TrEMBL record:
Record keyword Transferase present: yes
Name recorded for this polypeptide: Putative cellobiose-specific phosphotransferaseystem, enzyme IIA
Species per Swiss-Prot/TrEMBL record: Dellaglioa algida DSM 15638
PROSITE patterns in the record: PTS_EIIA_TYPE_3
Gene Ontology MF terms in the entry: metal ion binding; transferase activity
Signal sequence extent: none
InterPro entries given in the database record: PTS_IIA_lac/cel, PTS_IIA_lac/cel_sf
Superkingdom of the organism of origin: Bacteria
A Pfam family per the record: PTS_IIA
Cofactor binding: number and manner: Binds 1 Mg(2+) ion per trimer.
Length: 109
């Protein structure tokens, strides 16, 4: 049986990509801070790298929507879309700050 994804399903999948990958990036960033606090800078670096991978995946989802919009096919804005974008922006900010916190722990440790 072949399942055909409609436009709403595709958009929901894209939005969920933002939410899930943004959430994973934020979680990995927090784990990096906790590892650095314990002096485990190898794990901290690995967690920051994992966060970066999740952010790249989320960025791919966002780019798909931007490309659609730029090609003249408007992307409907929904509360879930706004939530997904908010999740991504918070994850990016959190990742940036986590990198700084890990660096601070390295210097004081």
């Amino acid at each position: 049986m072949v399942t055909i994804m409609n436009e709403n399903d595709a958009q929901m999948q894209t939005i969920m990509g933002l939410i899930v990958n943004g959430g994973n990036a934020k979680s990995d960033s927090m784990e990096a801070i906790h590892a650095a606090k314990k002096g485990d800078f190898e794990t901290a670096a690995a967690k920051l790298a994992d966060a970066d991978k999740s952010l790249i995946e989320a960025h791919h989802s966002q780019t798909a929507m931007l490309t659609q919009e730029a090609s003249g096919d408007p992307v409907p804005v929904s509360l879930l879309m706004v939530h997904g974008q908010d999740h991504l922006m918070n994850a990016i900010t959190f990742r940036d700050l986590a990198g700084e916190v890990v660096d601070m722990y390295k210097k004081i440790g």
